Structures are given as C-alpha cells and as structure tokens.
Amino acid sequence: MLSNKPMIIAHRGAKGMAPENTLAAFRLGLSQGCEGIELDVHLTADEEIVVCHDMTLNRTTNGKGLIAKKSLSEIKTYDAGLWFGDEFKGETVPTLDEVFDLVPDSIMINVEIKNSYDGRMEHKLVEFLRRRNRLNNVIVSSFDHKCVRRIKQMESEAKIGLLYQSKLLDPTAYARSFDVEVYSLHPYFQMLDAEDVLKATESGLYVYPYTANEVNDLLHLTGFGVSGIITDFPGRLKDLLQTQDS
Ligand code: G3P
Ligand code: MG
C-alpha cells in the first residue's frame, strides 16, 4: 500500500532542534507529530547496541574515543546534550532498548547500521528485534548493502532498506536484482527524480529520501509521491502537509 502523503520521519530525532540521537530528540520528534524516527547504531566493547551517528564520542558527547573500545557503563558517564545547549544537560547516549521503550509501537523505527563490526552487529540486531517483537514496524537500512542482505537472510520477517548517495541508473532494477526481498529505497534526496519514484512505488518499493529540510525541497519530494521524508524538522513537514490539506 503506497499513500500520497509522505510519512514524516524524524532524522536522528528532531535533530534540527535537539541533540541528535538522544531521547530528548526522539521525544521532540514525537511531540511534533512524526510517524517514524531514524537513528544510527554502533556496538560498544561489551556488545551493547547504542544510538550514535559517529564511530567516536568526540563530536556529540563530552567524552572521547571509539564507541567500540568503551563499555556501556563508561559511555553512560558522558553527557550527550550539553554540546547542543544547556537545557539538554544530562542527556546520555541511549541504548537501542531505551529508544524502543520510549517510542510507541505505532511509530516506524528506521535503524541505520553504520558499521557491521565483522558481522556482529547483524547478529545482535536480529536478536534484539526478535526479543522486542518489533520486526513489523522497523526498517533496517545501511549504505552497506551486503550487511542488510545478511539481516534479511538471517530473519525473513525483517524489512531492509538500501541507502545510497549516487544517481543510480535504475534503482528499482538494482533493488530487484537482490536474491532477498528489499523493502525500501533510501536515496540522498537530491539524487531522486519523479521517474525513479514512480518506477519504485509501482514495483512495490517504498521510497524514503534523506535528509530534506528546506520547504522547497519538502514540497518537491511530496510532489514526487515519495513514501516518506527523513527530515531534521518533522514539525515543519507536518505544518506543510497540513497547509496542503486545508
Ligand atoms: O538514514 C538516512 C541518513 O541518516 C543517512 O545519512 O549520515 O545522516 O546517517 P546520515
Ligand atoms: Mg542515519
């Protein structure tokens, strides 16, 4: 089922107005009416799945170093909100469990795998999604297409999405060339055209471009009939779609 109205997907939470990939950012996205959230995951030294964009803590916390070299308990001692604003002091790097506890089942969660960690992430994530019983409303995406293919091979119920940054000749043909079912395309928004969207949606693929924030771009993509838009400003997209309705 493909609808005309794009799903509002909060990129790393409402990243434009709160520190990315924190519970505060996800809460804000939900309060602004998002219907999905996008987040990025890494593995700690003790193999916990945590939500962070970069491989290191340097940019988004007051800690330093590789996530993969630190235990969860050490990572939890660092502040992940202060860099964005004093009012976010006390935010920490959340575990994936904490985000799933916060986000209602009705909200789609797009888990972007940043690193396979030699295949360990795929195993941990599949185990996690089975335990949380949330396979039906989660999309696992990655720029590493072999990685998401492994996810689908391990768990046939998983929905997988292909992230890409280039202008592909025929994204639908590419997705359909996989020996497993691909659920969605996640193109960089400037690399998408109306023909790509039409062909993909007619073939049953969902199309979720990232990361569009400007009103003109949001309108443009909505006009293409995309399935959803990954945005740092979910409230802005919500207002725009409401204006179109009235
Ligand atoms: O999943 C869409 C988008 O988040 C991909 O790029 O760098 O923002 O994680 P990035
Ligand atoms: Mg991402």
List the helices and strands and how they pair.
Layout: E1 7-11, H1 23-31, E2 36-43, E3 49-51, H2 72-75, H3 96-102, E4 108-113, H4 120-132, E5 138-142, H5 145-154, E6 159-164, H6 171-176, E7 184-187, H7 194-202, E8 206-207, H8 215-224, E9 228-231, H9 234-245
Parallel strand pairs: 1-2, 1-9, 2-4, 4-5, 5-6, 6-7, 7-8
Antiparallel strand pairs: 2-3
Number of domains: 1
Q: Which radius of gyration do the C-alpha atoms yield?
A: 17 Å
The backbone outline, from C-alpha atoms, is: globular
Residues in helix, %: 25-40%
Domain GP-PDE: 6-241
Protein name: Glycerophosphodiester phosphodiesterase
Organism: Paenibacillus germinis
InterPro entries: GP_PDE_dom (IPR030395), PLC-like_Pdiesterase_TIM-brl (IPR017946)
Describe this structure in words.
With 246 residues, the protein is α/β, with parallel strands linked by helices. It has a single domain, classed as Phosphatidylinositol (PI) phosphodiesterase (TIM Barrel, Alpha-Beta Barrel). Helices cover 33% and strands 17% of the residues. It has nine helices and nine strands. Strands 1, 2, 3, 4, 5, 6, 7, 8 and 9 form a nine-stranded mixed beta sheet that branches. Helix 4 packs across helix 5. The longest helix has 13 residues. The protein is globular and about 50 Å long. The two termini are 24 Å apart. The mean pLDDT is 97. SN-glycerol-3-phosphate (G3P) binds next to strand 2. This is Glycerophosphodiester phosphodiesterase.
